[in-house]
Amino acid sequence: MSQFLQQVINGLSLGSIYALIALGYTMVYGILKLINFAHSEVFMVGAYTGFYTAGALGIEGMEQRGAAFPLYLALVVLMVAMGASALLGVLIERLAYRPVRSAPRLTPLITAIGVSLLLQNLGMLVFTPNPRRYPPIIKEVRFELGGVIVTNVKLTIFVVTLALMLGLWYLVQRTWTGRAMRAVSVNLDAAKLMGIDTGRTISATFAIGSALAAAGGILFGLDQITINPLMGTLTGLKAFVAAVLGGIGNIPGAVVGGLLIGLAEQLVAGYVSPDYRDAITFVILIVILILRPEGILGVVRQEKV
Amino acid sequence: MADAPVLEVTDARVSYGGIAAVKGVSLSVNAGEIVTLIGANGAGKTSTLKSIVGLVPLKTGSVKIFGQDIKGKQTHEIVAGGVALVPEGRAIFGNLTVRENLQLGGFLRRDPAHQKRALERCVQLFPRLGERLSQEGGTLSGGEQQMLAIARAIMAEPKLLLLDEPSLGLAPKIVQEVFAAIAEIAASGITILLVEQNTRLALKTANRAYVLVTGEIVLSGDCQALQRDPRIRAAYLGEDVHA
Predict the structure, then answer these.
(1) Contacts by A87-90, CB closer than 8 A, 24 or more apart
(2) ipTM
(3) Which tens digits make up the pLDDT trace of A2-44?
(4) Distance CA A132, CA A229 (A)
(5) Which residue of chain A comes nearest to B111, CA vs CA?
(6) What was the pLDDT predicted at B186?
(7) Cross-chain residue pair A196–B76, CB shorter than 8 Å
(8) Which one of A281, A302, B86, B87 has the lowest number of neighbouring Cβ atoms within 10 Å?
(9) B1-82+161-166+193-243 — its CATH code?
(10) Is B236 helix (H, G, I), strand (E, B) or coil?
(11) pLDDT higher than 70, residue A57
């Protein structure tokens, strides 16, 4: 039982990270019907921005002195990384996707793959291909609860993810930016007729999704200890599957999908074999595409005429 | 420019991939008027309206709203100049509530006091919407969706309202209700350009009319005169005229 609970906790924390990344895929898809493959690299850049920011704030010296990195500085690291990735996301949309907005749908898709490859290689050039140990922005403390080992890092992952999701919910449901985003995702021309500057709304969507991915990147670094410039490929792909599983374009669906993929991965690693932990995601993808292609929370909408 | 027409379209041409849909349309709408643009399916009515709000580009010609050329402006900027379009097929935000649809109609007038006042006015105009404020827009009947689309368009208190086939697909009783509301909106001082296939209704509602045939204006004038015109009676009112 305690082993099962252990896997569930590990699965949910990994799943939280997938969920944070999946939100960016699903929000952009909802608005532009575009699969933003470069999103996985925005996640990677977020992790590296956190890495360098923590370095600039002197985390190494503190570690050597045995001092813990202060919480407020950890928040600064998070904010800087989220801001940098938001900017990157907006730039990608402006420079790469906007010029091909009215082209056939395959064109932006291929553009997205191109941007993704470009950023991976730039990452290897700038950050070097060597894996880096992630600085202990949160110093790990382990404690045992009824035979289950919990760390403050895992708790941080849950708290940060929950806080960001509540923030996102508020933004989407209760603010004018959120209303504009939902209007654009239903009908672009009708949104323009309301006086909505759809270009700005699309930029806002990229900014928000990218900031969430950056948070996911930092949490991923804390959880998995090392990062490298290609970290986005597999993790991003799994998060994308999570978005499809939940129903692409559907915000709660991305969260549900992320948590389920994380759980499935840990349970398979724990009870079947760690060799299959990556494979299970794609088994799920195949099954969902056969049985319920609209995803768990996705709906097939029929327009009234 | 106090005497400039609210809307002035001069020699507008619109084409889609080399196929001309609007071939040199000129029309004007003066303050306080209801002007109707009538014509058969595919005559270019919707394309004309879309070009006025910048949803399709003009190939040549110009559109002036309150004397200002819309050239180079994006749709949201044109709308901010006091224009609203109720599009063909209504384009309700189906998974947003009726209230949210209305709020978005007033996206350019976001202060809570205005929102509250404008929403009350919409509910007064269409009491049925008042009963359905927290329902999703997509669950409304066709007639209610049309009412919502019109109400949403007047949330920002436009000076010029463009209506694209508001009677399309509605039961006769609902059509009456919708047109009564349009008359009330016009009476409140909003200038209206009405596109309709229902010629009889359009000529009854409007002051002046333009008749569009395959992208060109072939006839225009006072609605009362046009109702008596044998060409109109034969072609659009389904009457057997022996001229």
Answers:
(1) A87/A207, A88/A42, A88/A45, A88/A210, A89/A24, A89/A39, A89/A42, A89/A206, A89/A207, A89/A209, A89/A210, A89/A211, A89/A213, A90/A203, A90/A206, A90/A207, A90/A210
(2) 0.94
(3) 889 999 999 999 999 999 999 999 999 999 999 999 999 999 9
(4) 10
(5) A176
(6) 96
(7) yes
(8) A302
(9) 3.40.50.300
(10) coil
(11) yes
* Gyration radius of chain B's alpha carbons: 18
Burial of B242 (0-12, 13-18, 19+ CB in 10 A): exposed
Amino acid at A302: Q
* A101: contact with B, CB 8 A cutoff: no
pLDDT for residue B235: 79
- Chain B hits for A197, CB-CB cut-off 8 Å, are 74, 76
**Cβ count near A302 (within 10 Å):** 8
- What confidence category does residue A76 fall into, taking pLDDT thresholds of 50, 70 and 90? very high
Mutation target among A189, A304, A305 for the B interface, most CBs of B within 10 A: A304
Q: What percent of chain B has pLDDT over 70?
A: 97
Are β-strands B216-222 and B208-213 bridged in parallel, bridged antiparallel, or unpaired?
Answer: antiparallel
Torsion of CA B26, B29, B35, B40, to 10 degrees: 20
B156 contacts in A (CB within 8 Å)? Answer: 194-195
Beta bridge partners of B23: B13
**Would you state the pLDDT for residue B240?**
65
In the predicted model, is pLDDT for residue A274 greater than 60? Answer: yes
